[in-house]
Amino acid sequence: MLGRKIIQIECCDSTNNYVANLLLDGKVEYGTVILSDEQTSGKGQRGASWLSNPGENMLFSLYLNTANLSVKKQFVLTQYVSISVSHALEKYGLSPSIKWPNDILINGKKIAGILIENQLQGSFIVGSIIGIGLNINQTDFKDLNATSLKLENGGFISIQDFVFSLINELKSFWKIVESGNFDLLEKYYFSYFWLLNVESIFSDKNGDFYGTIRGVEENGLLKMERNNQIVNYDLKEIKFPIKQP
Question: What is the third-level CATH fold of 6-191?
Fold first, then answer.
């Protein structure tokens, strides 16, 4: 079912919003993919924006049946999508890293971002809108610490070809989610994890500190060791170094 129907549009405010509106009208099936050439109000995590030059990058949303996944396990979806994107990039000869929770980096520069918006029913997730923005042919990012497939590979990349490659990876890794083998999914996730077990200088509301990432809690909070104690951080409670030491 996943990727069986692909809807290509020229422009929207955001592909996730486009899927949400289709849902309200009852006009979208599980597994449907939305692709847009341009977004006027692309969304990132916690209200951040996603900027992309028209026609140069992949702006992608997928409506997924999460098979009544428990809300307590929602970070599984973050792991699943991050791994799928990373594996697709590897097929293009790149060495991606996952910066917690789900930014995808190449040599310390951001190439992709992920936004997952869940539909809840009680304590279960019954559906998810998965948005992925990935830089493919854009080469000018001004002062942003970003890169693209074209910058890394040195030539034009077909957005359509990458989309089909990504859909194949999403299909493949979804089988692991459906099987309930979350330990295997976590193993894949941490194999890509940026700064895992590497002492670095981070920042929080109290300023800079030396710390070492030791993993991620089941609820998605970052596990940081500092001063021989484990401290958990939520998104935007901590700032990462720009580059790996």
Answer: BirA Bifunctional Protein; domain 2 (3.30.930)
